[in-house]
Amino acid sequence: MNDEYDIVIAGAGPAGGQCARDLAARDYDVLVLETEPESEFPRQSNKSTAGTFPSMMSAFGVPGDVVQQYTDSVVLESPNDHFTRDLSGAVLDFAAFKRWLVAEARENGAEFRFDARVAGPVMEGDEIVGVRFNGDREVNAEIVIDATGPSAPLASELGVSTLERENQAIGIDYHMEGIDLDHEGYGDLHDAMMLRLDHDIAPGGYSWIFHTGEDTAKVGVCYIQNERHREKAKSGMTIDGYMQHWLDTDPRFENASKIEGGEVLRGSAHIQMPGRMHTDSFMAIGDTVPTIDPLWGEGINKCMQSGRAAAIAVDHALTPAQPDTSADRLSVYEDLWHEQVAPKMKSRLLMTEILYLAPNDRYDRLMTDLNRLDDETLSRANDGDKAAIRKLLHLSDIPELLSWAKRRLRDPSNRWNPA
Prior knowledge:
Mean pLDDT: 88
Shape: globular
Low-confidence stretches: 412-419
GO molecular function, one term: oxidoreductase activity
InterPro entries: Dggglyphlred_Halo, FAD/NAD-bd_sf, Geranylgeranyl_reductase, GGR_cat
CATH architecture of the largest domain: 3-Layer(bba) Sandwich
Number of domains: 3
CATH topology of the largest domain: FAD/NAD(P)-binding domain
Protein name: Dehydrogenase (Flavoprotein)
Keywords: FAD, Flavoprotein, Lipid biosynthesis, Lipid metabolism, Oxidoreductase, Phospholipid biosynthesis, Phospholipid metabolism
Distance between the termini: 45 Å
CATH superfamily of the largest domain: FAD/NAD(P)-binding domain
Pfam families: FAD_oxidored (PF12831), GGR_cat (PF22578)
């Protein structure tokens, strides 16, 4: 086997797979190291609910045969109300989607080594020159990319990863059947992706139902380990407990059960501003840095965009007559990340923290506001537009906002808005 490559990528998820796909198409020698055995891939890493939108499908040429269900609407729920917006989407078969990415990258010329657990970087002085895996195996590269997710074995050792436990989101997802998708008093969830804001079910987070055809859906709960979670969480209750509590109390699940043979998906991501995302000859992409959409948790599109931004940065570094893999040359990656992958990240994180700390009755009022306002207000607010955000605020929110601001000023790390 070759032990010298232009680029070595650790991790074959959406970010790593897309980055390999793009770079191999440009005739670079690319190696992807993936922890899981190929015969089981992706078993341990099949952790996404996999809801996405047509913009991602068209931007990356994703075929329809990896789609479980096309959807026509997005439904937001509060404890006592809901809001429905017509918006096309797709719920992917995430395992099939990841295998498709591998096949695409291979067809373009990328090499994959499965059952290859990354242990750390190979260093010459202060610069990374390769990757150590499976104990003492080594491969060298001009540029190394960490796409391993929160474990971040390369980024952590290089001091690039800044993931903090208090910003970690923890989620669980079941594939279920027998769900009443149009129960009286709730929104119609046929061909829909639904997100519910309700601290009784997900303190400091949200829950979801994504229709996957007939009476089946992906059903999950996620919470961020934030102040509202610490305040509202029931002592000793785990993510599994909150999931079971929802299934026991929501009438839509009265006759529902987990699909036989269906896996219970567990995952985590970090909701925070990224710190440094690159250094000499190295970039961290996908969930190795906090790439997930902070407000609604959509990660596939963001991860693939970050992989594409890293591929552009590799081109920028390796195409000159005298290749330059310095941190200064690779800084185009961070520029693209902030301009295209996650623009207005600080505003969106601010809105995220305020949203998930709001009390339940405020969620009911949010649904009333969304039903009153034009269809685009939510989209603009979701994109961090301050004028749209102001339309969703009320004078009665001022005490809660002032209290939130005081807590942030007392936080010495100022972690929600690092400069």
